[in-house]
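User: New here, any thoughts?
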Amino acid sequence: MSKVTTRFAPSPTGLMHLGNVRTAMLNWMFAKKMGGKFLLRFEDTDQSRSEQQYIDALKEDMLWLGLQWDDEPLFQSKHAEQHRNALEKLAEGNLAYPCFCSESQLNLDRKLATSRGLPPRYNGRCRALSADERQTRLKAETHVWRLAVHADAGEVVVPDLLRDNVHFLRKDLDDPVVVRSDGTFTFLLPNAIDDAVDGITHVLRGDDHLTNSAYQVWMLESLGYTAPTCLHHGLLLGEDGARLSKRTGSHSVADLRQAGLFPEALQQAMVRLGHPNIPDDATTIAALTAHTDIEHLSTSSVRWSNDDMWRWHTKILHALPAETLAPLLIAACKEQGSNIDEQQSLALAEMLGGNLNKVEDILQFKRLFDLETPFASEDVQTLQGAGATFFDAALATWKDLEQADWAAWTTALKEVSGQKGKALFMPLRLALTGQAHGPEMSRVVTFLGQEEVTLRLKNVLDTI
């Protein structure tokens, strides 16, 4: 068997979205697991919509996801001559033919077939034209090109790793259009010819392509090529159960990156779809690949979950060493016009790492490093409810301490103020952190130190 070679073949007409991610990851993982090659090919024959900015963005997103391709990127437009030669060879063997039927005629044919309980396939009208009539009409009439697949007998067999061999009776297949009336190719022919020319051995894609695969296998075998083995997995659905695509609101990778998502979180959420037995400690893409048996991937549709993706993000965030998290906190603060130095960022990372769902949540604790941060209106009400007498006592008992000690402070304040439980602890937490929930207060007062705690208590007295 030749060396396994897979590919990811996006059209550079938009940003990479979640459906692209699944296709790219499955093809990359299969190639790596089999010791093969993974190629990146841009299907850029739609020159009116293909743009360099999307080529650049797709490359950037692939690298961000850790999906490095082998060799130089390929471009479908470079194979234009092979596409034309393939069509000519098919036409010479009467395996492709020009169709002159108008759209109105085709619509009428479909309605007639449906009214008779038949599938709305092309009825083969132009397939029966003589060679002379075709040549005469080609010079004067608008036309498309179709593959002559439909037949009363015979079958097409699609080799599939998940479904064994999938058999299609030719009487159930149509004569699909491969060249539009404007002379441009549809997806079917260039995609298949490129796979043959590029030496692709395996194609992993959604089961919505099963019929396309039948047409492409028939075409490649008719041209003397060996068709690649397929793996048609279940479709990726949105949280509402509808098919997920960039046309139906699927997130772009660029949007997720902008939102601060870790690429590892997207990898985890995506790869585990249809792979329920991957252990939780498979935390790298290499580990995911090792534990993934793609040949036993679920053939059922799978449903995407943004919540699962962000849960993985939080899990990864909580596992980051403080040294890794600290520069991320600096960047998040800087983006919002706040500045923390390296020493502060390291201390904040150690103290707050387990309290953040996203890196930018550091700004919720801005009061810890910026005394000028205003309180939320509801927090002011809580502080006012505690009262100036409480905070005067808090300030006095704090000044009496020889060192920053949360337990000693609250014990002394409890005796002086008569407050306990939430009435004691909540006003102090709000005063120092600006948040009702967060890290252990013993760590907070150690981080702030005696002078900073004093300043915050005075600030609260001024506020209320």
Remarks:
- The radius of gyration is 32 Å.
- The chain has a mean pLDDT of 94.
- The longest strand covers residues 37-42.
- The chain has three domains: 1-75+187-319, 321-366, 377-463.
